[in-house]
Amino acid sequence: MTELPAVKRGAALLNDPELNKGTAFTEAERSALGLRGLLPPRVMTQHEQLERFLPGVRSRPTPLDQYAYLVGLHDRNVTLFYRLVMDHLEEMMPILYTPTVGQACQEFGRIFRRSRGLFVTADDAGRVREVLANWPHDDVRMIVVTDGERILGLGDLGANGMGIPIGKLTLYTACAGVPPRQCLPIAIDVGTDNTHLRESASYMGLRQPRLRGAAYDALLDEFVEAVQERFPQVCLQFEDFGNHNAFTLLDKWRDRMCTFNDDIQGTASVTLAGLYSAARITGTPITDMRLLFLGAGEAGIGIGDLVVEAMTEEGISSADAHSRCWFMDSKGLVVKSRTDLAVHKQPYAHDHPPVASFLEAVETIKPHAIIGVSGMPGTFTAPVLAAMARHHARPIVMALSNPTSKAECTAREAYATTDGRAIFASGSPFAPVTHKGRTHVPGQGNNAYIFPGVGLGVIVADSSRVTDEMFAAAARTLASTVTDDDLAMGRIYPSLSRIREVSHAIAVEVARLAYERGLARAPRPDDLSAAVSAAMYQPVYPVYAE
C-alpha cells in the first residue's frame, strides 16, 4: 500500500495530478481519504476510464484541440494520461509532439492553463538558484531546456518555446519510462526578436528584444552551475537554441557535466540509423556513400560529425570521411574558396568550384542521399528528385525539417517523381503512399527513437557524461531493430508501436558504454537489461487503502 503525504486528503488529493486517481479511487480509499461525496459514486477501473476518455480526444475537431484536451487530462491525472499515451502511442505522438507541438508553441499563450515547468528569465540574473529551489521535487534526473530562439522550423518564439521541453519530457516518459517526477521542463526567457509575438495580447513572456552577448553568456553560466548544484545527478538536454549558442553551449559544457544537444546529437543519431538501414536496401555501405545536406546549421553539422565518426570507426580516414559529406547553405555549396564560413562549417569546405543552386550540386556531386535540414519547404523540387533518380537506382531522400509544413518535399512527391524508387524518410509523419499498385510506408526520422533511450541509459548508470560514442551506439542499435519486413515496405525505421522496446535496447547499450568507459557512478548491476526494465515507469495506480 502506498503512503500519502499527511496533508493529501479530500479535495487536496483530487487536485494533485500526480496522486489523483479520479473515479478509480476505491470504496475503501474514499472512506479513508475523505473523498465521500467529492466523486461520482461509480468506482471505475483504469481501463474503463480510458474507454470514457479516448472518444473525447478523437472527437476534437483539430489536432490543437486534441492537444489541449490531452494537456487537460495531464493536469488532472498524470497516471491516466500516460496510460492513454502509452497504449495509443502511434496515434498520440503526432498530437503531443511533431507536428502539432509547433502550433501549440505558436499559440502557447492562448491555450496555457497551468504551469508545468520553470521559467528562468533575464530578470532572474543573480538569483537563478532561488528560482530552481522553488521546484518541489529534488530527484530530478532529466531537464530539457530551451531559450526559444529556434523552435523547430518556426524561428524565435521566446517563452512560447516552453511547449518543446514539455513535449520532449512527455516522450521521455511515454517512450522510455523515465518517471514523470524525475523530469523538469525549463524555458529560459531572455526576450524575443519576434516583434509580432512581443506585441501579441496573449504573449506571456518578457516584452523585450532578445538578450545577447556577455549578459546572455553570464545568465547561461549561472543557470548551468545552479542546475548542477540543485540536481547533482541530472542530465541537461539543450533544445532549440540558435546555431551559435547551441554549438557554444555544447562545446563549453559537454566535458564538464552530463549534457547533450538533441538538435545536434539526437538528430545526427536518428539520421545515421536511417542511413545504416538504407544501406541494407541499396547495397552501398555508408563508407561509400556521398551525402549532400541542404542546411549547414546545428542539425546538419551534427549529422555530418556523427557520420564521420561512424565512417572512421569502419576503417576509412577522417579526411576521406569528411570528403563524403557535402553541405549547401543559404549562400551555396560550402567550398574552401568562401571567406564567410562559420567555424563549424570549415571542416566540410571542399576544394571545389562554387555552386549556387541545390539542383546543380545534385547534378555535380551525384549524392547517394540528400538530407534536408533547412526548414525551407519544397526545396527538394521535382528536378532535384528526378536527378537523384537518374544517378541512383534507389536514391535516399531524407526531408527532415519540422513541422510538416517545413518539409523539403512530401512522401508522395518523392515516390511519384522517382517512379517509386526513392528510400524516403521525413522528420514529421507522412501517410503511406500507393504508387502504381505498390504501397510505400515512409520512415519517420523522429528523434524520439533516440533521446529517450539515451536518457534512460544515462540515468540507470548515473553517467557523468553523454558522449558521441553513445549516440553512435544508439544509431546502430536503432538500425538493428529494423526488420526485413520494414525494409520491404520502404520503411527504414521500426514502427512507433515498438518504441519502448527500442528505447530499452538503446538504454542498455548506453549504460554499458558508461560502465566500460568509467563514466558510471551507480554500482553495476548483475543484469543490466533487467535493471533497465526495472527503472522504466509504468502508469499503474497505487493502492492507498485496503
Number of helices: 24
Distance between the termini: 8 Å
What is the CATH first-level class name of the largest domain? Alpha Beta
Low-confidence stretches: none
Q: How many E-type strands?
A: 14
The chain-level mean pLDDT equals 96
The spatial strand order of the largest sheet comes to 8-7-6-9-10-11-14
Radius of gyration: 24 Å
Give the full name of the CATH homologous superfamily of the largest domain: NAD(P)-binding Rossmann-like Domain
By secondary-structure content and strand pairing, the structural class works out as alpha/beta
Helix content: 40-55%
Output the CATH topology of the largest domain: Rossmann fold
Strand content: 5-15%
The CATH architecture of the largest domain is: 3-Layer(aba) Sandwich
Shape: globular
The oligomerization state is: single chain
Number of domains: 2
Main β-sheet description? 7 strands, mixed
Keywords:
Rossmann fold, 5-stranded parallel β-sheet, alpha/beta, 7-stranded mixed β-sheet, single chain, 24 helices
Secondary-structure map with pairings?
Layout: H1 10-14, H2 27-32, H3 46-58, H4 63-76, H5 78-87, H6 89-96, H7 100-106, H8 108-111, E1 118-121, H9 128-133, E2 142-146, H10 163-176, E3 183-189, H11 195-198, H12 213-230, E4 235-238, H13 243-253, E5 259-261, H14 262-282, E6 291-294, H15 298-313, H16 318-323, E7 325-329, E8 332-333, H17 358-365, E9 369-372, H18 382-391, E10 396-399, H19 411-417, E11 423-426, E12 433-435, E13 438-440, E14 443-444, H20 451-461, H21 468-480, H22 484-488, H23 499-516, H24 528-535
Parallel strand pairs: 1-3, 2-3, 2-4, 4-5, 6-7, 6-9, 9-10, 10-11, 11-14
Antiparallel strand pairs: 7-8, 12-13
Helix pairs in contact: 4-5, 4-7, 5-6, 10-20, 14-15, 14-21, 17-18, 20-23, 21-23, 23-24
